Amino acid sequence: MSSSNGSITISIDGTNKSMSLPLLSGTEGPQVADIRKLYGQMGIFTFDPGYGETASCDSKITYIDGDAGVLMYRGYPIEQLAEHSDFIEVCYLLMNGDLPNAAELKEFRDGVTYHTMVHEQIRRFFDGFRRDAHPMAVMCGVVGALAAFYHDNLDINDAEARRIAAFRLIAKVPTIAAMAYKYALGQPFVYPKNSLSNQPQGYARNFIHMLMSVPAEEYQVPEVLAKAMDRILVLHADHEQNASTSTVRLAGSTGANPFACIAAGIAALWGPAHGGANEAVLKMLADIGDVKNIPAFISEVKDKGSTTKLMGFGHRVYKNFDPRAKIMKESCDEVLAELGVEHEPLLEIARELERIALSDDYFISRKLYPNVDFYSGIILKAMKIPTSMFTVIFAVARTVGWVSQWKELIEDPTQRIGRPRQLYTGPGRRDYVPVTQRG
After folding, report:
1. Burial level of 132, CB count in 10 A (0-12/13-18/19+)?
2. Domain-embedded: residue 297
3. Number of domains the chain is built from
4. Which of 67, 87, 211, 375 has the fewest CB atoms within 10 Å, i.e. is most exposed?
5. Taking each helix axis from N to C terminus, what angle separates 223-235 and 372-382, rounded to the nearest 10 degrees?
6. CATH code (residue 351)
């Protein structure tokens, strides 16, 4: 919990109005001015488009220091978790606050595995979508509809109901994601396999199995792909109060059921400025078309009068190197070497762009380093996963973060329904004029 540590005084010029705002201190990061009584005592609101300078909650889940390139889940550096842990263990950590012992991990893994199947009637939902529908549109619809199938545990004030809902979401979202992919291909849906769940990177293995296998052939998940997918999931599991997480919390503040809240998060994630960024990377590479076109493309990027954007480089939060990108680059190199696709045209363009960005003073001085979206996009492309599925995979990873943030919100007695304020700039009061009298 935050603690009070001093105050700041504000006053309105030309009046005798002033007040002290308590300064709150967390475990890490800058102090926060508590403005909850600002309107009541001073009659003013604050103005902060995009909430870039405003804390909407206190949270114990994830901490980011963008200047230092730090990301921690529950205090554990992301580098250590990516190297030593796997996604299911990270799920437990985010949900419960601490790493599990062996017995706790087994119980948690078994709980997730138990809920990986979806109600058979959900299969019929897919028949209502066009085969060429974007899978994120499918995800929004089907995940939101889960409340119609699992309405036995929707009492958000009951701790056991929240626990079961959390298991269901973490377990079923990858199954639904794989079904969306298979539906677009016209292939049979593939069910999760219990035998894969108990292996290292079992969650990632099961997901790849549901994506890639077909009933008529035996499929073995390649080790390097299981490791790479697991890392993608770990690195994207949570990222503090980003747009989609804030959407989940805002929806949750109304008392909406968890399935509706996560569906809202999926909708927010779909935006190209958020979860669609790695999809935008591949579109950029396709637009460049050939390595020989890179110099002209870089010139356009450097031209202040140009609208050409360099996707997958730099980050709004990280003013240094994205710590997730360093880890993802290792997996990227491993996957490309294992699959022998270093000479695939788009990947060659990507590697040349990476080389330039890491050596050109223009990019270095602006700290436009390749971010996690750049490398994850290359990995998924190498795995022959279509770009339309990139954001879906992001949603699979982020579900545990959303659920953890939703649980924290519901269990916080100080939270209330979200209600941002505004600076109104429309017309002042005016009276209605009958249509016959209007000029």
Report:
1. exposed
2. yes
3. 3
4. 67
5. 150
6. 1.10.230.10
Closest Cα partner for 226 from 205, 253, 257, 255? 205
Give per-residue pLDDT as tens, 181-197.
999 999 999 999 988 88
Q: What is the pLDDT of residues 222-251, one digit of tens each?
A: 999 999 999 999 999 999 999 999 999 999
Q: Could you give the C-alpha distances from 103 to 73, 159, 167, in angstroms and in order? A: 21, 21, 17
Encoded tokens for 53: 């300078």
Residue type, 154: L
| pLDDT confidence of residue 421 | 92
Say whether pTM exceeds 0.85: yes
Each residue of 70-89: pLDDT tens digit? 999 999 999 999 999 999 99
First to last CA, the chain: 61
- Among 382, 397, 423, the domain boundary falls at 382
Q: For residue 37, what are the domain limits?
A: 3-55
Phi, psi of 21 (to 5 degrees): -105, 120
